[in-house]
Inverse folding.
């Protein structure tokens, strides 16, 4: 089931989120103890709300969106 979840992430979810209006960047972290974490940055809160799935949705078997939060970016850093 984990292989199918990874395939769905790579083939469907990441391309869909990346193509969403206002998308800036996104990260999907490897699950630990069965819990994965992802976050995406959008240019506006409105664009983030338009794209975010509601909590409780299951985009692929074995994966359920446990919670969704919206927070403003207060700082960022990148490698030089």
């Amino acid at each position: 089931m984990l292989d199918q979840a990874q395939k769905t992430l790579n083939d469907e979810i990441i391309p869909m989120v990346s193509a969403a209006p206002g998308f800036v960047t996104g990260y999907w972290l490897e699950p630990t103890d069965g819990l994965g974490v992802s976050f995406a940055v959008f240019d506006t809160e409105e664009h983030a709300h338009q794209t975010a799935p509601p909590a409780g949705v299951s985009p692929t078997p074995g994966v359920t969106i446990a919670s969704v939060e919206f927070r403003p970016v207060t700082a960022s850093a990148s490698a030089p």
